[in-house]
Amino acid sequence: MNPLDETLLTRAIEALGSATFPRALAGLLQSLIDCDCLLMVGYRQGGPAVYLYDNLSRRRELLFQRYLNGLYTEDPFCRALSAGLEPGVYSLRGLAAEQGMSPRYLADFYRDTGWREELGLVIRLSHGQWLMMFMGRLQPRPFGLVEQAGLRRRLPLLEALCRRHWPAGTAPLALAPPGGLDMEQRVQAALASFGRGRLTRREAQVAALLVQGMDNEAIAASLGIGEGTVKNHRKHLYAKLGVDSRSALFARFLSHLITAAGIP
Questions:
Q1: Which of 29, 160, 201, 238 is the most exposed place for a label (fewest CB within 10 A)?
Q2: Is the pTM of this model over 0.70?
Q3: Is 140 helix (H, G, I), strand (E, B) or coil?
């Protein structure tokens, strides 16, 4: 475990409440433990996983499209949180073994992401709301027990920072402004690709209109179909995307937009 870098800690404190905090937090965390990749995800029990930050350099689109579009429900960390996992530091291999998951899951995960080892830091932000920070290594070098113990000793500090930035009752989402004049085009592209590979063409059209705030009647008029047909499409697309409400669908779309637009 590396010593605490006071400069990076100061940067994280100064970034509290701003869109740059996730990046500053990532810098602090990577100074504490040696890892090649880092991913932050917000998770509300019973809701979708929400993208916060990553520094992935390869296979990024594949990982995000699959994970945020429903694969997170198979993640040993999310499964463990639903079963009452306490805040702490856990290895992916350890959690998967405790849950009796097939070795095929790990093999597929490491093949698809290019990671060889993963360590997860779990922080409770408030009741039912969590922050998961996944640290990956691209070489088969396990995170040792001493490294894990050292990170656990820093857990109170990291929890205090995260709870101050994401107070109880707020959505675990802090985005850096994308800048530029092409955000409208990015949103339109994200709407057009939302649910691709999981939804039928008509279901994708309904989903895009739902996240734009249209009700069943307006969607029916826009697409030239009946309200009953809209309701059926809505039911099916909710099931395929693993959501149960318009707000959950919108949270899923935000994650998709962030991934598709490459927002840091």
A1: 201
A2: no
A3: coil
